[in-house]
Write a structure and sequence with these properties.
117 residues, 0% helix
């Protein structure tokens, strides 16, 4: 389970997103994560994440660097569905994943209607 805080800044048609949080792992060490992503609208309710990098530092080294891509679907204000898949940019070892992926729900605060596009 990932517990992130995310901040976003709109730059024309591009959204710049910063993320930091804590990753609770069922079978492995918990750790902190940080990342940045660029996103743009694909269709009216779909948002395509062009590039996302994440650095994870667990209680025990090593740091994991991944490159990811994903989609966001605006379900209903303030809820967005998140889908992501990616891979390690380093050689995967016994403590590092080669493939990463997740799905989740994002709640926008403060709650307000989605912008018209």
């Amino acid at each position: 389970m990932i517990l992130p805080l995310e901040f976003s800044k709109k730059l024309g048609p591009i959204d710049l997103n910063w993320e930091a949080g804590y990753n609770l792992v069922h079978r492995g060490p918990d750790g902190w994560l940080a990342g940045v992503s660029l996103a743009t609208n694909l269709l009216r309710t779909w948002n395509w994440t062009l590039n996302s990098t994440r650095l994870e530092h667990s209680i025990r080294p090593p740091t994991k660097k991944t490159l990811e891509g994903g989609l966001r679907y605006k379900i209903h204000p303030p809820v967005i569905l998140l889908l992501m898949a990616g891979r390690s940019v380093q050689t995967a070892g016994t403590t590092q994943p080669y493939f990463v992926g997740y799905f989740g729900l994002q709640l926008l605060l403060p709650s307000r209607p989605f912008e018209k596009e």
